[in-house]
């Protein structure tokens, strides 16, 4: 049985939902630079900048008691030393609207929305100057909203830095001639320093922090011991961050591996003391899929999108992601065995190109099936002793995907727009809306 104060709700980002690209003092963000042009862009989103109260009313009807969103850096700083009061006022009203509807606001302080000018001038988080700028911004955000916010997430999916692919989400481009792994490790280190400093400030102000990573469960492809070692190596890319969140230091394996490979980042005097400040109150994860590991091969890449190796024992979504509910249970058990800290699932969901039928309905039984099975496995993990305290579905209202593809929908609320046609952006309930509402009403007892 789940806790009586279990958090049920959903999660989005600002750049995939807000739109209002040139309103309120917003400037371009680095996430805009990741758009391939194959689908759309983030300029209009689903216009939640103007329509968020309409969405919040629907979330309240579903019974949400929590909502995760990002505070868009590019909406709060129009230049390196210039803060944008209009942006802060927008989030004043946004957070108030959530609280008025009985929802716990869970802001993410960095979800790939760094202003482009910081990428162009400093190469993003590859430069410690950007760490300083980010920490000062976060202090202003915490000071502004601390009396309204109980839970904070500092970086979204921070371990995505180590996935093989471009680092533009973190504002960085590897310099010519530099070892790409050393570059990745530098961004990792710098963002962990930023995390630890912001975490400490939130704690000084009495707030609580959920340290976050994305976990792609990785199974050995065969029973060959080298495949197991490869699987352990793949998992270490999440553990190196989670270990700082739970223990305040690098784990010995990853640190030794950087030494052995010659990929050690620049670490300044006092940095290890700063990392000790990084211990969070809770852990939080995004979980969508699993992959398999074979010695000497990449089990996951993230160039134009996440690509994994196919598991012959699992179904795949239309977008090439494995459907593995048991993997969520395995992940929760592994993390709780390792850290013995409360865990929140802050992203999970099923992306599909939903269609409206001839009766004007969206019958998304496939989404219900996906969510039901994942919640069932989460509950089994709780029965097995895991202290799991929340489940937030990704994109409860349709938003653009991380690659700006409106046809990859996750929501229980349909938004009437296409990649190249904004239409009227009317909101429509899908079949999954009433299903999730009942799940929340019964605190997960009836699925």
TrEMBL record:
- Write the record's keywords in alphabetical order, separated by commas: Glycosidase, Hydrolase
Which ranges of the sequence are coiled-coil?
none
Q: Has UniProt tagged this entry with the keyword Membrane? A: no
Q: Which class of enzymes does this protein belong to? A: hydrolase
Annotated GO molecular function terms are: hydrolase activity, acting on glycosyl bonds
Q: What is its EC number?
A: 3.2.1.-
Transmembrane domains' residue ranges? none
Q: Which SUPFAM superfamilies match?
A: (Trans)glycosidases
Entry annotation: catalytic residues: 347 (nucleophile)
Give one Pfam hit by family name. Answer: Glyco_hydro_1
Annotated family: Belongs to the glycosyl hydrolase 1 family.
Protein's name according to its UniProt entry: Glycoside hydrolase family 1 protein
Query: What organism does the record attribute this protein to?
Result: Massilimicrobiota timonensis
